[in-house]
Design brief:
Oligomer: homodimer
Strand order of the largest sheet of chain A: 1-9-8-6-5-4-3-2
Distance between the termini of chain A: 24 Å
Shape of chain A: globular
Number of helices of chain A: 15
Largest sheet of chain A: 8 strands, parallel
Chain lengths: ~325, ~325
């Protein structure tokens, strides 16, 4: 059995499940595992380290013959980085957080589908106007960077705004119930991050994955403190949803003081990252942590989410008297 | 055709649609209209004005023979108010925002179902332990008072936490796509507020309803300023989602100054409410305003939402290859 949508038809997928290109976490092995299991794996190029990209894109190419993709943070992209990634022949190229117009033509000219992640309805209209082949509507419950609108009302509003461009739902989805709900909202699939961060093939530190398994949604928080300490200049309306650790508790709502204390705080933060001290180092995670209770192979996650979504869709049909 | 769930079976509904008991907006006429159309209408007793309650509960009793309910803000409830409302023989009694234990026994002893609205998973466990017959999981995208968790990940987590107690989804739902998504998340129905605030029978001022029709989700904001100016002592983690008007822009993030200026600001606010000046007076509204484009009779809304949800559930079934 499989779930058929415009997304699965476009790429020959067994399930409308897309791995979110989590910066430094969605490496080539994880992306390939998701693609090999019938989903669509996206490598998380994030801020655009060319050496990391070369290594992980070589890996995904080697490990799967199925379609896969790559993602970059738009405001960190450059023509050179986009060119580099296109050289590995991804099936899709996701851009999020910024103006995609400088890169749209090159991506589409390479025969690659342009996927634009947006956080508000007006951003979705801009993405469609820029030539997006697929729009991802990302809700505030997502882990990592995002904005303020919630998935449930955002997805149908984006579907209406960009029709007939297909839409994926992102944010707060970690199981088959969330995938089935995304499809009912009018999405053609779901982009899933945090659940796959806690997969065997994830590049997330093992101790950080254990924290995701243990965490509740109430332990997550949108904050800028981890951007400040890493010297990333994110603009409004973007913040990062992370597990609330000691560093976050110490500095959230004291952002100016943190910015003034970088000379002493950055070396400490750097050591914490090296040592895997996640009371200081960031663990990005979404509100769906409530639904995450184990670390298993990505293929098992794709299977579970698909089977549960299929079961829910069948339950839905049976509700019709 | 109809949608059958544990909720519709319990109350003989045609559709698993529940009118949110919006304070002062969900009056007897609106609640009766929803119940007569096959949903479940709840009168919004809110802060508990006994004269308002007597008038609106008399009205709902007179206008429908179908099951209906009543809601109160838990921290404003008193044994006398609960007794008063139970005297009108509601089928369900919704309590939200506080400890329901002082009232649970009286409500259940009256043969009335206890419905507890919650905003976090641990609150859901407390509600189930207190004897809730139904738990409403309310996401942050909801209009009016609420907290910070989003509907999409909150609902399945609450379903798991309180099983086998039935759960309703609230927050961000205004059409049949949202209802169908709620059912896929494991809810037995949806509680819908803002969409019905813009119904013909709503007690919301006509000019405020026009603002809801015109508004986008980005025009809404969670804030305490309207609680401060109305001298309502809401505690953490509750804030009210409202349309961002001039009053909100002027005072949000200046809450202490507002509290210090009440002597001059309250009379101005009172006049604005009297005159229907909604650049000052509050219009509570959720992020689902993106999906609200008209003011029509409540029965038409119940019909539309049901028909669209049925169609979506059928589409979902057809996705199974």
């Amino acid at each position: 059995v499989a779930i058929r949508t415009a997304l699965t038809e476009a790429f020959g997928l067994a399930s409308p499940i897309v791995l979110a290109p989590m910066n430094g976490i969605s490496g080539g092995r994880l992306a390939a595992a998701v693609s090999n299991a019938g989903g669509l794996g996206l490598v998380g190029g994030g801020y655009g380290d060319p050496d990391w990209l070369r290594r992980e894109l070589t890996l995904v190419q080697a490990e799967t013959d199925r379609p896969w993709g790559v993602g970059l943070i738009t405001w960190r992209a450059t023509p050179e980085l986009v060119e580099l990634a296109l050289g590995y022949r991804p099936a899709v190229f996701l851009l999020s957080f910024g103006d995609v117009r400088p890169y749209a033509a090159a991506i589409k000219a390479a025969g690659c589908r342009l996927v634009c992640q947006v956080q508000e309805v007006d951003m979705a209209r801009d993405a469609a106007a820029a030539g997006a082949d697929i729009v991802v509507a990302q809700g505030t419950e997502a882990g990592g960077h995002g904005a303020v609108r919630a998935t449930m009302p955002l997805v149908p509003a984006v579907v209406d705004a960009v029709a007939p461009v297909p839409v994926l739902a992102a944010g707060g989805i970690a199981d088959g119930r969330g995938l089935a709900a995304a499809l009912m909202l009018g999405a053609q699939g779901a982009m899933i991050g945090t659940r796959f961060a806690a997969a065997d093939e994830s590049l997330m530190d093992e101790r950080a994955r254990a924290r995701i398994v243990a965490a509740r949604a109430a332990d997550t928080q949108r904050t800028r403190v981890f951007d400040i300490i890493r010297e990333y200049s994110w603009s409004e309306p973007y913040t990062g949803r992370a597990l609330r650790n000691r560093f976050c508790s110490d500095w959230h709502d004291r952002e100016r003081e943190l910015a003034a204390a970088l000379a002493t705080e950055m070396p400490k933060y750097g050591r914490a990252v090296e040592q895997g001290d996640f009371e200081t180092a960031v663990v990005f995670a979404g509100e769906a942590v409530d639904l995450i209770n184990d670390v298993v192979p990505a293929a098992e996650l794709v299977r579970r989410i698909s089977v549960e979504a299929e079961a829910q869709l069948r339950v839905g049909g049976a509700m019709l008297a």
